């Protein structure tokens, strides 16, 4: 049967019954689904009071070309129908839960000698599903408890009576470990097996009291029949169940089954936490995020989340605790805002979860990014740059009296180290201790390479040093014809002075400034990287020169040994066979003798 159809001009003809209304655009696409206690009043409010609507809602109203309605018995039925329609069609102006997870379930199979195992696919014909569970850990805890208490098979065999009678199967390791009683060989009857399944079913439903009563009865019967070892085993299972219940108990066990929902909002999102309580224990906790579409009020966002989460997690709890309530009661919904006692504590706990989730989301998204942008914007302002310096490269030299001269370049993207972009340089064209000439060489090599590979230049070049090193870097940039295209500064360590090209007066940034701290971090990282590289080069050169002093060991052999072992320590620890395989027996023995004499 088709839904009654109206044009926007015919809203006055709508009935004054509870129901659901659907808005379509000119292409016939469903753009919004809403619920109403009174269809005529609710739909009319979009067109009569359009001036008082927010911008997004006015935009939606302009798109409406057709209205369809479905009349239901109550506002609660309207809520359920609205949820199903939104879930099916996901109209662009409706609130959507920001959660695309496929949740795990535990399946109790419908077969001879039923199994219990985890799955994410729901096929109702396979058996009874328990869940969904908000986390795999929570699901595994219950599964582990059940497998500790009962001997339920884990194999996938088809245990039809005629297959067991034909001796088709043999027991596996699980039988020998005591985790299964061997129904595959007929060592356990189905009636006995199903007693365990019934109790496991009670635990999965959260009815721990029934399972505890079962173990208590069995323990007493075993003791009366003088089967004390069996009674002890039942006692241990009872204690295990009580320990599990004690760990999950959060409030009075007198509180039976109920749901707790709380909502907190900001300008763009709502965050709803859901606690599911059974026999005084939290058996599920979940927080979801809803993006506002039409500046919906908090209570509407909360009701949307309640309906969808209860549907998703298959809750049938009659009582629902919340931190806010609708102005008028909704028939079919028992919403309570408790003021005191254990129920109030549960609402406060749920609210704490929602607030924590909101805080974490803020830190993980916008606010962290805002902090980065704030620092980079401040640096742009302090250095009078045309662009935000979201790509910074910094150079530093390292040598000891001109020996083993090296240099480093570190790269920062969005204020963070981009370590894959770091570069080491061996100084090739400079002899002796000449920091200025070394700086000219490495800056020239770096940007000649970037230009040849058509890669983007940085937004800021930082030189570790004062006016001399800065001038040397400028010479390199002039030689490449890119001087003036990229801002370049020098930072002197002593007073943390910032030098600009062709300006004799340094800039002093506030010592507490976040922008100066970023520059210091970039400079210190370049210095650390250069020192580490210089130490490695010096160490390798020392090893190589030491090996070359051995008669019969030349430069190529020592280089080969160094490349393989990296350090004297690894060379000392190496077995003679490894060295022989690398350079031959004669040379290996010469190096071994040298190392033995050196260690005396």
From TrEMBL:
Keywords: Cytoplasm, DNA damage, DNA excision, DNA repair, Excision nuclease, SOS response. It is found in: Cytoplasm. Residues 16-95 form the GIY-YIG domain. InterPro entries: GIY-YIG_endonuc, GIY-YIG_endonuc_sf, GIY-YIG_UvrC_Cho, RuvA_2-like, UVR_dom_sf, UvrABC_protein_C, UvrC, UvrC_RNase_H_dom. Its main location: cytoplasm. The keyword DNA-binding does not apply. Residues 338-477 form the UvrC family homology region profile domain. Belongs to the UvrC family. HAMAP family: UvrC. Interacts with UvrB in an incision complex. The UvrABC repair system catalyzes the recognition and processing of DNA lesions. UvrC both incises the 5' and 3' sides of the lesion. The N-terminal half is responsible for the 3' incision and the C-terminal half is responsible for the 5' incision. PANTHER family: UVRABC SYSTEM PROTEIN C, UVRC/OXIDOREDUCTASE. This is UvrABC system protein C. It comes from Echinicola jeungdonensis.
